[in-house]
């Protein structure tokens, strides 16, 4: 699956922190579709964990280490977590000795641990906001926000992951079933995300607007998709351990590009200098499938250019107009049939 990485703005805003600063945990089931025990005794164990975490700050994640549902991200993370095989369970970065004979009491202890961790103050927070799917269904966007409290220092990284609950696949021991809480992709090319050197002078928040090429299996229905953000801490040997997390759940809104038209209309400027035409405008989100055009004063089209992607923030579109005679032209942008134009002069 090809990832589209969009980091249009990464700013640290100093001042008060008003975002998510809770302490979360992750509970990882390391699994494989061919593994009999993964679909045997470990299947109801994970179902029980998922149910018990619904009202807690624990985020269950199913990661396939091998088999048809494994991917580069799930393999990299489960290898970092360690262990000797599958199924295995991890609370944050610690392996849990769950077996068929002790599952009940071990899950109870896991729940108690998650509840005790949430009582601790978060030394660094992370949040997921502004989740939406483009109208054409090709791009899934989200904003990852990291909250720096000035309480820790060291090397950290911030990852954003797609979790799907609607993937039906054959599981040894279960047959064709939905794979709950399945990690299927990362919004960032590196499995552990963006690396960042943090010190106690780092206070405020940093925002990462990110876009992922939406998989064909993506569902916008409430409960089918989750997005998990994770802070990883690195040691001097580049070993990664869990630090904090956040999860977004809900129905994914499909946002029309026409929501951006009013901003484009306000910010649109253009000119022709020599034989180069330039169009400038702002957008608060990535826009798919726009058309840059130039018409003569009578309305006849003299130039068109299809634009597959316009980035969040400032945009500039340019055209060679050496073939045009001097005179007045109308230059503009067509977004989903809505035209925004500016009058320009070629001298």
Please give a structural write-up:
The chain is mainly beta and 347 residues long. It folds into 2 domains: 12-255, Sandwich (Immunoglobulin-like); 257-346, Immunoglobulin-like, CATH 2.60.40.3080. Helix content is 14%, strand content 49%. The chain has 5 helices and 23 strands. The strands form 6 sheets. It has a 5-stranded mixed sheet with strand order 1-13-7-6-16, with no helix packed on it. Strands 8, 11, 12, 14 and 15 form a 5-stranded antiparallel sheet that branches. Strand 17 (269-273) and strand 18 form a beta hairpin. Helix 2 runs parallel beside helix 4. Mean pLDDT is 88; it is low at 1-19.
How would the blueprint of this fold be written?
Layout lengths: L11 E2 L11 E8 L3 H4 L2 H11 L5 E9 L5 H10 L6 E4 L2 E3 L6 H15 L6 E11 L4 E11 L4 E11 L3 E4 L3 E4 L3 E5 L7 E5 L4 E11 L11 E10 L5 E10 L3 E3 L5 H7 L1 E5 L2 E8 L3 E10 L4 E10 L2 E8 L6 E9 L2 E9 L1
Parallel strand pairs: 2-3, 6-16
Antiparallel strand pairs: 1-13, 2-4, 4-5, 6-7, 7-13, 8-11, 8-12, 8-14, 9-10, 14-15, 17-18, 18-21, 19-20, 19-22, 22-23
Helix pairs in contact: 2-4
């Amino acid at each position: 699956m090809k990832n589209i990485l969009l980091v249009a703005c990464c700013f640290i805003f100093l001042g008060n922190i008003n975002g998510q600063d809770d302490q979360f945990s992750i509970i990882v089931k390391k699994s494989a579709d061919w593994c009999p025990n993964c679909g045997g005794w470990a299947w109801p164990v994970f179902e029980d964990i998922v149910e018990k975490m619904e009202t807690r700050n624990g985020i269950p994640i199913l990661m396939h280490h091998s088999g048809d549902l494994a991917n580069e991200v799930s393999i990299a993370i489960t290898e970092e977590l360690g262990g000797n095989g599958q199924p295995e369970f991890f609370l944050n970065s610690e392996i849990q000795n769950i077996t068929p004979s002790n599952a009940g009491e071990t899950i109870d202890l896991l729940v108690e641990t998650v509840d005790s961790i949430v009582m601790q103050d978060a030394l660094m927070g992370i949040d997921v906001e502004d989740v939406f799917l483009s109208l054409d269904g090709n791009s899934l966007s989200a904003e990852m926000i990291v909250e720096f409290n000035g309480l820790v220092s060291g090397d950290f990284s911030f990852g954003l992951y797609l979790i799907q609950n609607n993937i039906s696949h054959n599981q040894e021991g279960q047959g064709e079933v939905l794979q709950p809480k399945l990690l299927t992709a990362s919004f960032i090319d590196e499995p552990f995300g963006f690396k960042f050197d943090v010190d106690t002078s780092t206070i405020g928040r940093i925002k990462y607007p990110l876009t992922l090429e939406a998989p064909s299996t993506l569902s916008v229905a409430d409960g089918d998709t989750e997005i998990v953000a994770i802070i990883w801490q690195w040691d001097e040997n580049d070993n990664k351990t869990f630090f904090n997390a956040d999860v977004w759940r809900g129905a994914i809104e499909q946002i029309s590009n026409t929501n951006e038209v009013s901003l484009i209309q306000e910010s649109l400027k253009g000119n022709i200098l020599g034989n180069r035409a330039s169009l400038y405008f702002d957008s608060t989100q990535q826009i798919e499938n726009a058309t840059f055009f130039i018409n003569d004063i009578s309305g006849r089209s003299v130039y068109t250019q299809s634009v597959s992607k316009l980035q969040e923030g400032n945009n500039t579109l340019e055209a060679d107009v050496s073939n045009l005679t001097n005179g007045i032209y109308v230059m503009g942008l067509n977004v989903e049939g809505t035209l925004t134009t500016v009058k320009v002069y070629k001298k």
